[in-house]
Predict the structure.
Amino acid sequence: MVATGESKASIRAEVIAAGEHWSTAQRRLVRLVVELDDSGEWNADGSATCAHWVASALGIEVCTAREWLRVGRALRRLSAIDGAFESDQLSYSKVRALTRVATPQNEAELCRLALRVAAGRLPHALASWLARHETPEETETRQRNATALRTWTDPDGMVAMSLRLPPLEGGILMAAVDTKVAQFRPDALVGLVAGGGAAIQTELVLHVRGDGCTLDDGTPIAGSIVERIAPASFLRALIHDAERRPINASGAHRHPTRRQKRVVKERDRVCGNCGSSDFLQYDHVPDCEETGHTLIDELFLKCSNCHRDRHRQAPRRE
């Protein structure tokens, strides 16, 4: 059965209506669990904490109930964010991110920021805001105190983990993992840890611009950190033109140079076919066998799957 345009529109409307109903219920739930915690009624059933009682009663994980309690308690002292949440201007996802960093003094400005930014980009936007309003010492202390490693077992028997690192250490770790380009990322991480990280050379890309410093994925990093590591680092500069485009680099060789790779990475960022940022490779279009050279304008980022598929589909030459 093929859905008509009208039925598709109806399904979209139902999704929106269900989402609005869930948002209303979630706002109420976040407030109720805090009231329950204050009342102490959860203790009547012998639960260890209110979060444990909520988890048992609703069939959810304890960590989810703890997060509801954290958000609900934070909203009691953040009236601007609480009001925007209640009026449905801010989603729970945005409120959850805001309550991790907002204070009564800065919540009005952060609330306005959240209204302008998509939920998926809000963590980066908040981190950039903090980088502009904290001293380097405050940022470093806050990030060091928030460093954590947590592991758990998923229902399928797999071991999962959550790792929180300051941006520099996180960037170094991922740069080391990505040096093993032929390996699946989890396998590369296990090999790195098991091997002690010995004899691995990495290139960590830091963007130093007029509006601040970031890692290659946009994660803000304090300028003081760049200053601290610069004297002991081997630095390569990637120059941009007046329109903020990386300057071209060319050569008559088969494989792209490091400089060419940096230029293409800065220009494309993700796979040009599927948008993936994993297992990125450099694809010659047209093929190097045809042109005999490697030029920036003929190099494009492709994930390994899309790169392989393109060459499988290309006609064979006799």
The beta strands are 148-153, 159-164, 206-209, 212-215, 220-221, 280-284, 299-303. The chain has a mean pLDDT of 82. The first strand starts at residue 148 and ends at 153. The radius of gyration is 25 Å.
